[in-house]
Write a structure and sequence with these properties.
Elements: E1 2-11, E2 15-25, E3 28-37, E4 46-53, E5 60-68, E6 94-101, E7 105-112, E8 117-124, H1 148-175
Antiparallel strand pairs: 1-2, 1-8, 2-3, 3-4, 4-5, 5-6, 6-7, 7-8
């Protein structure tokens, strides 16, 4: 499986657009989550790695390792570096997500390590379909990838996810096989 899901999310202190790139490798579900704040929302673009896991039930229970993107520099940074940009705001770094999906729709709810929570309703992307596909977007929904700012943000998020993936892989290798972090 290699699929993309796009839609809106609402969380404890912010809201916006979410993109999930899910893939199954070796029987385990993994991938990435990108969150982009809505205009006027008090948040920053955030990327998360889905820790690969076997999915035997629906809803699936997944662990997300989250990292922010600095709103000015566009660079992945540790959470504490955003305290000057977002004073009086706390950021979760780990979330436990419950994911339920059908053929074209996905519902995600999560709770973070600092007690924040959120939910999203996503639709399966039809980006892999030819432009004249009769199926089109689900329920007439329009995906916002024709907007240059969203396309640029998605491209940058993909680059950052690759960097995060390499960083996390290095961290897991350095911590040893015990699995305790």
């Amino acid at each position: 499986m290699r699929e993309q899901w796009i839609g809106d999310f609402r969380a404890t202190v912010w809201q916006g657009m979410m993109v999930i790139d899910a893939e199954t490798v070796g029987g385990k579900l993994g991938g990435s989550v990108s969150m982009f704040p809505a205009e006027g929302s008090n948040g920053t673009a955030t990327i998360a790695r889905i820790v690969p896991a076997e999915v035997n039930t629906c809803p699936a229970q997944l662990l997300l390792l989250m990292n922010p993107i600095h709103p000015v520099t566009g660079v992945q940074v540790p959470w504490h570096e955003l305290e000057r940009v977002f004073p009086n705001m706390r950021f979760g770094t780990i979330a436990q997500a419950s994911v339920e999906w059908q053929e074209r729709e996905m519902t995600v709810t999560w709770h973070s390590n600092i007690g924040t929570q959120g939910q999203a309703l996503l639709h399966k992307s039809s980006a892999d379909r030819p432009p004249c596909s009769p199926a089109g977007p689900p329920d007439g929904a329009r995906l916002r990838t024709d907007c240059p700012q969203v396309a640029d943000a998605l491209h940058r998020a993909i680059q950052l996810l690759r960097e995060l993936d390499m960083t996390l892989d290095e961290g897991v290798s350095a911590s040893g096989p015990s699995g305790s972090h």
